[in-house]
């Protein structure tokens, strides 16, 4: 079958690999219907995160169950399944405590594991990892569900970590897919004021569509001052959805005393966390990789009920054979998020 | 009158200064009964924190009201008063929100303001800042109340920030007065297991007296591993009561995924906060200067009821005239906490 690997910095390739097979009795083999390129895929692609040449790529995907191991009981051939970006055993203390991303037997798609930017994958702990969706799913619904596998779950986590209350205000930093989804998650959580900070003018419209009540230019020198002014001294809830130094610095600057920062961007190049600033103003810093599996059921239910639609973050589509073009489009910020279809449609 | 100033690094002096006078109608003049030297006083004393030569010193003190401005209504001449380490106006959004340490019109004792290691002080916003104690107070009770002005309130804050639940477990890092008080605060909060980490063998006994169920040597190489083992994978609640790099690193190492670090030591020399560690394991870092005034009433009520006694942290006493000796004893770790008495008793 075909699978995407990172061969070198900036060098994404679709290569032939052996078909995945059941290894453990809890495995399933899943054929990929739709996958996406994530902003975090760009870190190793740009050489800003370590990788081994040949690492499999892709952790956002939806597929159809093709085969199940003898201990898989909740899934059957032909099921459409949503996968979170991490697999987990579902039975350990971390999983039972709602933190499947801290499961010691779990892991992330890609690298030495199978990746989602491929024709198929072997899924460990399939019963615990996958959410079957037993509804009529057309292409449009597939697009609404795909973001739940990572960016929508992560945006939701930012809002959870920041403790955004119904009727409250939140500052969302970042206009990547996660930041935009955090805006949507904040609206879903009932926030009345959603102040979004981005760098790309064309994404402001999408932020507003998702519920942002004001959009600020993250590159303008006075952005922090304007947000502090408009929030009467800083925001009580700030969602940091980038993971870079300037985004964190802005989050620290606009959080009011006693406020909370929910930080969900994968930290990259962050070498300064001003502990004294946190200390002086009693600011809580709650960083975390989203326990996406723990959110999948409720978010999928909202999508199926027509109450949630993050699909506008999917702004370009490619056949899997053009995966290198999909990366290039993301890298050059020509698209918010690119999807790839193994069937080439 | 006599007041303590920091003349140079390691050079503490008791000098003659003008008597304090009422400047604003909300001021009070308070004569000091008992004051203490704080671990944080040692930072400038050791040259590890900026100061201006001649800065007044001392932010832990109890006194008697001598004079009140025309707008002071809750205090009268002769009242015994507890002061938190920071004054605040009591009416702003921060004060009303329970964060008097973020009051913009407030400040900390010492520096350009009057300090507590003196015969008397001018107290701004006296009604809001001071807690009158209208009970018969002998010397022993004075010693039980004094730690509430800073170290006991700060230890309590660590337990609040770390979210220690009744019946839960907590790791307390630091065997200074704040760490020891955090142990006491954890017991007061109903923690069942209190794992204390210190460096001084003679303080382990005091930690146990305050409620520690186990005491670890912070300098031993395997301390983190032993704590992780004894907590079944790390602690859900960690109180960091030092403010130094190694204490923070230890806190990060022993916190379990999804856990919370309450950090109350004044950050000093902390230049690495591993954001990726927080992110990867969904650890909340809640640092904060204690809003001591917000805790004073309830802690003082416990002391007066005989339910709380932090006075064992006061391990040495000096007349105010020997303030330089008190600093030296603290600096050389010959005492946990030194008190000074302006009346020389």
UniProtKB/TrEMBL annotation, chains A, B:
Q: Which Pfam families does UniProt cross-reference here?
A: ADH_N (PF08240), ADH_zinc_N (PF00107)
Whether Nucleus counts among this entry's keywords is no
Q: Does the keyword Zinc apply?
A: yes
Q: Can you tell which superkingdom this protein's organism belongs to?
A: Bacteria
User: What InterPro entries does this protein map onto?
Assistant: ADH-like_C, ADH-like_N, ADH_Zn_CS, ER, GroES-like_sf, NAD(P)-bd_dom_sf
Q: Which GO terms describe its molecular function?
A: oxidoreductase activity; zinc ion binding
Keywords per UniProt? Metal-binding, Oxidoreductase, Zinc
Which cofactor is essential here?
Zn(2+)
Please state every residue range assigned to the domain named Enoyl reductase (ER).
Answer: 7-340
User: Which family does the record assign?
Assistant: Belongs to the zinc-containing alcohol dehydrogenase family.
Q: What protein is this chain from?
A: Enoyl reductase (ER) domain-containing protein
């Amino acid at each position: 079958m075909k699978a995407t690997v990172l061969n070198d910095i900036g060098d994404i390739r679709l290569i032939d690999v052996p078909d995945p097979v059941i290894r453990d009795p809890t495995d399933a083999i899943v054929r990929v219907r739709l996958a996406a390129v994530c902003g975090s895929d760009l870190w190793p692609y740009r050489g800003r995160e370590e990788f081994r040449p040949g690492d499999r790529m892709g952790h956002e995907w939806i597929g159809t169950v093709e085969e199940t191991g003898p201990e898989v009981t909740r899934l059957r051939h032909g099921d459409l399944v949503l996968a979170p970006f991490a697999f987990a055993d579902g039975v350990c203390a971390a999983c039972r405590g709602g933190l499947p991303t801290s499961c010691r037997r779990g892991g992330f798609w890609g690298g030495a594991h199978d990746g989602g930017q491929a024709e198929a994958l072997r899924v460990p702990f399939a019963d615990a990892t996958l959410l079957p969706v037993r509804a009529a799913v057309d292409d449009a619904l597939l697009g609404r569900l795909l973001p739940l596998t990572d960016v929508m779950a992560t945006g939701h986590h930012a809002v959870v970590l920041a403790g955004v209350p119904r009727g409250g205000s939140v500052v969302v930093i970042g206009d990547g897919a996660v930041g935009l989804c955090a805006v949507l998650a904040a609206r879903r959580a009932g926030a009345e004021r959603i102040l979004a900070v981005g760098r790309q003018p064309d994404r402001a419209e999408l932020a507003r569509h998702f519920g942002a009540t004001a959009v600020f230019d993250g590159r303008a020198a006075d952005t922090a001052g304007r947000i502090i002014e408009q929030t009467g001294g800083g925001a009580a809830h700030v969602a940091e959805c980038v993971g870079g130094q300037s985004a964190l610095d802005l989050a620290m600057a606009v959080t009011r005393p006693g406020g909370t920062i929910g930080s969900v961007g994968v930290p990259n190049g962050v070498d300064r966390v001003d502990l004294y600033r946190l200390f002086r103003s009693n600011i809580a810093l709650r960083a975390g990789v989203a326990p996406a599996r723990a959110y999948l059921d409720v978010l999928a239910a909202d999508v199926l009920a027509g109450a949630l639609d993050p699909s506008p973050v999917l702004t370009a589509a490619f056949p899997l054979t053009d995966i290198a073009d999909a990366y290039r489009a993301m890298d050059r910020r020509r698209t918010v998020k690119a999807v790839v279809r193994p069937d080439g449609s």
